Amino acid sequence: MFQLPFPVHDANASSGSDDLGPLPEWDLTDLYAAEDAPELSRDLDWLQQECAAFAADYEGKLADLDAQGLLDCVLRNEKINNIAGRIMSYAGLRYYQLTTDAGRAKFLSDLQEKVTVFTTPLVFFTLEINRIEDATLDALFAANADLARYKPVFDRIRAMKPYQLSDELERFMHDLGIVGDAWEKLFDETIAGLTFEIDGEELGIEATLNFLTEQDRSKREAAARELARVFADNIKIFARVHNTQAKEKEIIDRWRGMPSPQMGRHLSNDVEPEVVEALREAVVAAYPKLSHRYYELKRKWLGLDRMQVWDRNAPLPMETTRIVDWDEARATVMEAYEAFDPRMGELAQPFFDKGWIDAGVKPGKAPGAFAHPTVTNVHPYVMLNYLGKPRDVMTLAHELGHGVHQVLAADQGEMLSSTPLTLAETASVFGEMLTFRKMLEKAATKEERKVLLAGKVEDMINTVVRQIAFYDFECKLHAARAEGELTPEDINALWMSVQAESLGDAFDFMEGYETFWAYIPHFVHSPFYVYAYAFGDGLVNALYSVYAEGAEGFEDKYFDMLKAGGSKHHKELLAPFGLDASDPKFWDKGLSMISGLIDELEAMED
Question: Strand 381-383 relative to strand 201-203: parallel, antiparallel, unpaired?
Fold first, then answer.
C-alpha cells in the first residue's frame, strides 16, 4: 500500500484576514498536468505491466540471485515505488486541496485501488528477502558495494521477519488495506465538512480552533463550547471510526504475533521500544517542572483563580494582536535559515518561488499543515493554513524545515530517502528553533521577549507534554479496545484520564472537553505517530545545545545528517554530535532546555 500524506493538525492555527498579501498556491504540474494527462495514463500502464513483469522475473527466484542480479532487482523495485509514489502523491495532494469535492475523492479512491491491485503481485519481494539466510545476504553485500548501500532497507524489511505471515495471507492483507483507507477518508471528509457557528458566522474547524488563541476570553470560551457541541453531535461517527481502526489493528497485530500495539510503529520508526519508554518516562516525570509550573505562571499572568481549557493557548495580556503578512513571514524565516547557513536559504527559496507551498485557508481544504516529499525526482510540497499570527510564522518555519530535509535526502533514492518519523521532525523543529532565536534576538522590550519566550515554551509543551499525553491516551485506547467495543463515553473517559495529569492543577475542564480526542487525525491515520513529535523535539533541543556551545563543524555535520535520509540508524546519525538517544540522560538534556526557558520567565517576575 502506498501511503498518502495526511493533514497534521496544528493546534495553534489562526483565523482569517484580508491583510496577508497574495498567498501562494500549489502548482502540481511537476507531478502531472491534469487528471487526464497522457503522462498519467502512460505511467499507470507502465506500472501495471512492470509489476506483472517484475513478479514473473523474480518470484520464487530471489534466493538464487547473485549480487548484481539482486541489485538489478532492487533498482527495478525502486523504480516501481517511484512511479506509484508519483501517481498517489498527485491524487492525494489534489484531494487535500479540496476534500469536499466528490470528483477529487473518487479520483483518489480509483487510483488507490488501481495501484493496490497492480502492486499486489509484489508482496513476494519482502517475504522472500526474509527467507534468505543472514550469511548469504552478508556475502552478497560484501561482493557488491552498490548493493551494500541498500543494507539499511534490507535490515528494516528483516525486522518484520518474526511477524511475517504466509504469502497468501500477506497478499490478502495488502488488498484489504483499501478498506482501512475508506475509514480514514470518512474521518477526513467528516472533519472537513463540520460547520461551527460563532457570532452568527459559519466557520470550518480550522478557523474555529483558531478562536482558542484569541485575546478576548469570551470568544475563546464560545469557540470551545461550539467545538464541544459539534463534536458531541458527531461523536458516534468518530467513535465508530476509532473502534473499527483499533480493532482492525488488533486483528492484524494478533495474526502477526506483535507483542504490543505499539511494536509496529517502533519497527517502522527503526527505534527500540526501550528508547521510546525512556522518552515517555522522562517526559511524564518532568510534567511538574514543565507544564504544571508553566501553566501556574500563565494563570497568574491571565489574572485567573482557575484556568479553563480555552485558556491553554490564550495570548498573554501584554501581547499585541498583530497580523504578520506573508511577505514578512517569508522574510523572517528566510533570514533565520540563511543566518544559520546560506545553503539553507538556497534550499528554501524555490518553495516560495515555484508553487511548492499552498498557504491560504479555503473552504474544503484539509486543516493543519504538512510537508509531503512526493518522489525523489520531483520535489516536496508544503501545505499550510496561513492566517497571519506569529505562531503561523513558526508553522511555516517548521514545514519548510521538513521540505529542506526532504530535498537533501532525495539523493539517497526512493528506498533510502524516507526517514523514520522519529528523525523526520529533526529539521522541522530545528528550523523553528532557528526562527525563534532570530525573533528573540530582535525583541526590543522585556514584554516582547516575555511573549516570545512564553510562546516558545507553549509550543514545546504542545510538542512534548501534549504529544506524550496523546501517546498515553492511544495506549489506553488500544488496550481497552482489545477487551471489547468502546462506547463514546468509554473513549471520553480515557481521554480525560490523561488530561489533568499532563496539564496540572491550574486547570478546570469544561463539560464537553471529553470529546476533544475526536478531531486528532494522527489517531486514525497513523496510530502511535504522536510520540515522534516528542522524540524530535527532545532530539533537536539536545542538538541545539551542541550548536549553541559552538561545536566546531556543526553545520556540515548537520547537513550530512539530513542528507543521510533513512540510510542510518539514530545512533549513527547522532554519534558525530556526541549524543546517544538510548542514554536516558539524553532526554533530560532536551527537557532541561524547556525548563531553562521557564526559569527565565520566572526570573522576569522578580
Answer: unpaired
